[in-house]
Design brief:
There is one protein chain. The protein has 625 residues and is α/β, with parallel strands linked by helices. Helices cover 49% and strands 13% of the residues. It is built from 28 helices and 15 strands. It has a five-stranded parallel sheet. It is globular and about 90 Å long.
């Protein structure tokens, strides 16, 4: 019976039928033993056929050939072809771009024509191929490995391109003129080597499909680490990157038939525009909103598959409810607001991969590989070396939950600190998503908890840097442990308030309720015990902060917290302070009784706390319940 329970009905029937069809004897003792072996082998074969999780994989042929789970995005091939010959598309890091590019490479490469049915036969495009299938010599490049040291960068670029071009010449040696590789190796710089390849293709009447991944990687690193002067030398005038892309443009008339260029921001492309103005930016085209990443329907189908295979024991709806607040809610076009939002595909695969190891959700819902490059955003926040405009935008987003603006399709690096450009950059990095419209403006919000935790960290770093603070996050986590398991909350808030008071250098921008709340949020949000939800996330009328217990990972946690923060100016009288404390207590009593709060608290006891700040001083704190 143990084996039978683990077999599907069809497998059991098949095993019974096969056994007795092959047996000419009536039932005997050895028949039961034989049948058990058949069932056991059937179960093992079924287990071996279960698709693997392609977490971190970008090799499309390996995924198809080695029985990995693949979410079919090939229907977009025809739409790309019909939209633009030179296709430019940006998405946040770790969102599935590189796998998509590798799939395109296999589809268009004339060298994979014999493997077409094997690779694409079960996919949408295999049943609906386009005329361009396996038509091109594919030159696929990635700038991810180019060093950003200005003194070594050009040599690194040329060396990287030399290896790629040599491999291209060897791969297509039977199609190219015999002297092609020799011509390429005689040239010194990448643009000249590319010219040699293009001339050879033109002599043979061959067409190229150019795929360029992470086109902006090393250029953006230069901007962040070495400043705008070095960046301009790279992307303007006779910079080698500019010259390289100008060469690409020169051969789009007869050789480079199609291009697909991708990265995480349009900044570099804007600076290269005058020398490379042919790429069509489709990043906010609603047709391609769901092309990269997973829809909820795709996530649900994946989970249902593994539940049927016995790899998942939780109900699918329960897992969706865990994943959704962390990984979902990306919308990349205002014209796609009525469509289901997108999940970060890398994070979904991370979750499922970790789940398989223990049959329970991962303790850490955030895959560290999915973090946006910390130093890049830190540079943008602190570009004026103090708590300036960009840090204030982050603070606004964190404390109010949203901002409004227009998404710029491109903007030069020298103007990156301008408000609309900075908000656009946050959008392209995946730190903001389109949630609605406000007249001619877009409503931009934090997409999910993964991003919210990163923003908390960025804002905390801005406070530390501007105020030269040494606020120990590890010590804060220890104090938060006391809150979570021992109801010891006073020392946590006293620690934060004391450090804030000590930093006289930041008092000029810490004055005001929004600044105090932003400061608290930035540090309260960086912990593994609670999901820190501001008022806007729980609908208006709730307390300023609700620390929702992370019960899926910490089911034994006994306490959760509702916190109301009141603020008055430095010259406020004691009577005003007392009145604010009283008001906070009345509000908290109503908040704790709210059905939504009761639902979120799970098995924990809610502790309601009132904090009153006078200026930057925490002058009153009280437990209300």
């Amino acid at each position: 019976m143990h084996f039978i329970r683990q077999c599907s009905e069809s497998n059991v029937k098949s095993a019974f039928t096969q056994h007795f069809r092959n047996s000419s004897c009536p039932f005997r003792e050895n028949s039961l033993s034989s049948f058990r072996n058949i069932l056991k082998n059937s179960i093992m074969n079924q287990a071996n056929s279960t698709k693997l999780i392609p977490y971190g994989m970008t090799d499309f042929p390996a995924i198809i050939r080695n029985n990995y789970y693949y979410v079919d995005k090939t229907e977009y091939i025809r739409q790309i072809e019909q939209t633009a010959r030179f296709f430019f598309f940006v998405r946040p890091r770790r969102f599935g771009k590189s796998l998509f590019l590798n799939m395109l490479e296999c589809y268009y490469d004339c060298k994979t024509e014999k493997q077409f049915d094997e690779l694409f036969g079960n996919l949408y495009v295999g049943k609906h191929p386009t005329p361009d299938r396996n038509k091109y010599l594919v030159l696929k490049m990635s700038f991810s490995s180019i060093v950003s040291d200005p003194e070594k960068m050009e040599a690194s670029f040329n060396s990287n391109c030399d290896m790629i071009f040599t491999d291209f010449c060897l791969k297509y040696a039977d199609l190219l003129p015999p002297d092609t590789l020799e011509m390429v190796q005689q040239k010194e710089v990448a643009s000249e080597k590319l010219t040699a390849i293009c001339l050879s293709l033109r002599r043979q009447g061959l067409k190229m499909y150019l795929i360029l991944d992470e086109y902006d990687n090393f250029a953006n690193n230069v901007l962040v680490n070495y400043g705008n002067t070095r960046y301009r030398a790279l992307t303007h005038g006779d910079g080698f990157l500019r010259n390289f892309l100008k060469t690409v443009k020169d051969y789009t008339d007869r050789v480079v038939e199609r291009m697909y260029i991708t990265g995480v921001s349009p900044v570099t492309m804007d600076d290269l525009t005058s020398g490379f103005n042919i790429a069509s930016n489709q990043s906010t085209n609603p047709v391609f909103n769901n092309m990269i990443g997973f829809t909820e329907a795709e996530v649900r189908e994946l989970l249902e598959y593994y539940r049927q295979q016995g790899k998942i024991i939780h109900p699918v709806d329960e897992l969706i409810s865990m994943m959704k607040p962390w990984y979902d809610n990306y919308c990349f076009s205002e014209d796609a607001l009525n469509e289901p939002p997108m999940y970060n595909s890398d994070m979904v695969l991370y979750f499922v991969n970790r789940y398989f190891a223990s049959r329970k959700p991962p303790r850490d819902m955030l895959d560290t590989n999915c973090r946006t490059d910390y130093n890049k955003l830190r540079h943008l926040i602190l570009i004026d070396k103090n708590f300036g405009k960009n840090a204030s935008i982050i603070q606004e987003i964190i404390t109010q939950g949203e901002t409004v603006g227009r998404i710029k399709e491109s903007f030069p690096a020298v103007e990156i600190a301008q408000t609309d450009n900075f908000k656009s950059l946050l959008f392209y990095y995946g730190m903001l998503t389109i949630a609605g419209t406000r007249g001619p403006m877009l409503q931009l919000t934090i997409p999910n908890q993964v991003v919210r935790e990163q923003l908390y960290g960025y804002l905390a770093d801005a406070y530390r840097t501007a105020g030269h603070m040494d606020l120990d996050v590890d010590e804060l986590n220890q104090l938060m442990y006391g809150m979570a398991y021992s109801r010891e909350w006073e020392s946590y808030f006293q620690y934060i308030a004391t450090r804030l008071k000590e930093q006289s250098s930041i008092r000029e921008f810490m004055e005001g309720e929004a600044h105090v709340k932003g400061f608290l949020l930035s540090y309260m949000g960086m912990n593994s015990y609670y999901i820190t939800m501001p008022e806007y996330e729980m609908n208006k009328g709730f307390s300023d902060f609700y620390l929702i217990p992370n019960l899926p990972q910490l089911p034994d946690m006994p306490y959760s917290y509702a916190i109301e923060v009141k603020y008055c100016p430095r010259d406020a009288k004691d009577a005003e302070v007392e009145k604010l404390l009283e008001d906070a207590g009345m509000q908290l009593a109503q908040y704790v009784a709210c059905p939504k709060v009761q639902e979120k608290k799970g098995t924990t006891e809610i502790i309601a706390i009132a904090l009153v700040f006078r200026g930057w001083d925490l002058v009153k704190f009280k437990q209300i319940s």
